[in-house]
Amino acid sequence: MEFNELKESILACRDCAEKFGHTPSPIFHGTQHSKIMQISQAPSKNVHLTKRPFNDPSGDKLKYQWYQITDDEFYNEDNFYITSIAHCFPGKNGKGGDKPPPLSCAKKWMATEMSFVDNKIFVIIGAKAANYLFPGIPFIDLVFNEHILGDKPTYVMPHPSPLNVRWFKEHPAFEEQRLPVIRAKVWEALGKTE
Ligand code: SF4
């Protein structure tokens, strides 16, 4: 399979239509040579509607506060391959949150996507994505240490969602100590100096 065939196959996937109760809209972006492969959980409803990854309050925090980069830098396909363990918005759970990302999506696509992209580093966002990629390792250990996926340095962050505020309060060392290290690695991978 060629990379373009893979992208077309993901875009055409509707496996979860019945489970979601709406037509799936797979959302990801990047090239085979994106410098950073960012893997998160699943698109939000706003991302589903606008078809632009991290085009929501989580994205604002991620791009502007955590990475400290511009939209032009984030959405430059040479910089980021942006994907998720579930490529489609799974719907709401009735309590205001999103349904869990279907792991069937990750099982179907993730290893193949990872095998095609020649990224320098991985950034994993959110406990669900981290637990899928590093099963059995406590999330806190994943966040505060460097890991390897394949042969590439991998950095794990909590989800930047405003709903995650309790985790941020309970783990101030993330934003005070760990985040600057991860940001420096992201900037280094991008070749960004200011
Ligand atoms: S979430 Fe994944 S498996 Fe489900 S329809 Fe979307 S692309 Fe297909």
Automatic annotation (TrEMBL):
SMART domains: UDG, UreE_C
InterPro entries: HI_0220.2, Uracil-DNA_glycosylase-like, Uracil-DNA_glycosylase-like_sf, Znf_C2H2_type
Pfam families: UDG
Domain C2H2-type: 13-33
Source organism, top-level taxon: Bacteria
Protein name, per record: Uracil-DNA glycosylase family protein
